[in-house]
Amino acid sequence: MAANKFLSLSIGPGDALIVVDVQNDFLSGGSLVALKGDEVVAVLNHHTATFSTRDLPVFATRDWHPPDRCSFRQQGGPRPSHCVAGAEFAPGLKLPASMHVVSKATTRNKDAYSDIEDSDLDAQQRAASVRRAFIGGLTTDYCVLNTVIDSLALGYETFLLEDAVRAVEFSAGDGAKTLAQMHKHSARPMTREVIGA
Ligand code: ZN
């Protein structure tokens, strides 16, 4: 998609920030690292401050897997063990005290990458009268991708915070490919500079 078409965008009631899985296992030194994943922290801190000073809801999701999850290699799955329940958010991530924490992918037998499937995120958003979801975090090619697509399917106007996402890229190019996929589903690309006062 072409460069961002928004010069500026005001946020207000009905808007929510969704910070996807900014947990240590996806950052440098972790077990399932997103390329340059650490770079999202500063951008997301800008957004959490912007939303929380306007009393707009901030949802922080976290992968919260059982230790014997089916997708882990020791169970015959494709992924290294990561984000076992208790896995911390990045220490540099500044989340407001009022944030809503959403734990997901908590079961052993079912693999899932969406923050909405099998979690109460949708219910929490509806309870907070959210209409527009601003989504960033980790990783572009898995949980961000699936969360954005589910968010659109549920009828939320969905903005993809493109400077606040990073990909794992098990296959080179997965990041760009999945960004294009989200654009095709009508996610609206957005960067830090655009969301202003
Ligand atoms: Zn996971």
Question: What is the gist of this entry?
Answer:
With 197 residues, the chain is of the alpha/beta class. It has helices spanning 40-53, 121-127, 140-153, 174-184; strands spanning 9-10, 15-20, 58-63, 100-104, 132-138, 157-166, 188-190, 195-196.
Describe this structure in words.
The protein has 197 residues and is an alpha/beta fold. It is 23% helix and 21% strand. The protein has helices at residues 40-53, 121-127, 140-153, 174-184, and strands spanning 9-10, 15-20, 58-63, 100-104, 132-138, 157-166, 188-190, 195-196. The strands form two sheets. The chain has a six-stranded parallel beta sheet with strand order 4-3-2-5-6-7, with helices on both faces. Helix 3 packs parallel to helix 4. The longest helix is centred in the first third of the chain and has 14 residues, at 40-53. The model has no long low-confidence stretch (mean pLDDT 93). Bound molecules: zinc ion. Zinc ion binds next to loops.
Q: What strand order characterises the main sheet?
A: 4-3-2-5-6-7
Structural class call reads alpha/beta
Strand content: 15-25%
What is the H/E order? EEHEEHEHEHEE
So how many helices? 4
Secondary structure: number of strands: 8
N-to-C CA distance: 26 Å
What small molecules does this complex bind?
Answer: zinc ion
Radius of gyration: 16 Å
Work out the helicity level.
Answer: 10-25%
Shape: globular
Give the overall pLDDT as a whole number. Answer: 93
Q: How would you characterize the largest beta sheet?
A: 6 strands, parallel
Uncertain regions spanning at least 5 consecutive residues: none
